[in-house]
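Write out structure tokens for Glycosyl transferases group 1.
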Amino acid sequence: MRIAFDAQLIFEKQKTGIGWTSEHILKNIIKEFNNEYYLNYYTFHKAREKKKIVEEYIDLGYKLKKCVYLPNYLYKRAWNVIPIPYSRLFGNKAQITQFFNYDVPPGVNGKAVTFIYDMVYRAFPETIDQKNKKMLDYNLSVACKRADHIITISEFSKNEIIKYMQVEENKVSIMPCGVDTSIYHVNYTETEVQTVKRKYGITGDYLLYLGTLEPRKNIERLIKAYALLIERLHDAPLLVLAGKKGWMYDKILSLVEFYNLQEKIIFTGYIEAAEAPKLLKGSLLFVFPSIYEGFGIPPLEAMACGTPVVVSNQASMPEVIGDAGYYIDPYQVEDICDALQTLLGNDNLRKELSKKGISRAKEFTWSSAVNKLMKIYNKLVWDEGKS
């Protein structure tokens, strides 16, 4: 089979969930299955920088398809006005072309497959910048029409896509994400953990949130719950908020100042991939009070590192975490605080959740993910040949 991947996300310097998902799929699928694989990418800007990044993929066995005529962003702006076929830029050999970030351009040769990870912009429009919402409304509508198939990452997200985008159920398949256990594991030494802690000025015990700092992650209620925890437990551990700044980040900073928690809450900024598991391993608890997730990789990664997790009882979280997490109502500040206080005061419960978490995380592998993906591709190509 000839499979092409639209590879723009591998060039992101500060990857988040979608970027890491694309990278893990690309690196694992070529190891599992013997096919002809292509990376499609644009070299109009930063060609030398991109060349260094793709060398790793060349070594894995990918063939490169480069568009030198125009940058990706310009093509995306133009394709709904001047529908230049994607095949004119990248050729017409592929039987499957996979897009990782919901966009589907016109004129894709073979079957066009796209990922749609969640419907947060429809379910919680107040958590999204309104300009982005309008763009998503239009682009996702077009993508759902152009795509031959849609892949999402949980049963919850599949139901949301069917509900909001009015697509047929058989057009949407599920590929749960995985955990890279070569990185996320329990075997980091105390020295390795302390090195990362010193870098970010963390002393003693700490609670950890890791992810983008944006409204849907519910950081404001977490800060309010932490302020309440400080009232109850004057010696409560530090709270570390790790991740890059998102939309409305200033409101989070203002809330920390309002509660006078500047000495108790640490902002690390974006955490590099090599440091994240050590920070997770060293934390007493991982706290993830997100209102809405299509999957929620960070709690799984924390669980793989042996850290007990406090998670929202909303959206995909119960489907992914199972009985291995301590659930909270993310809308109730006191409930979040109660959970933190309960777990901080109960070593046995933390150990039990740690054990369950390690076991649960092992159920989600990237090998399993790409096997599900390949079954979808085979069905699409086989059905075409059959017809």
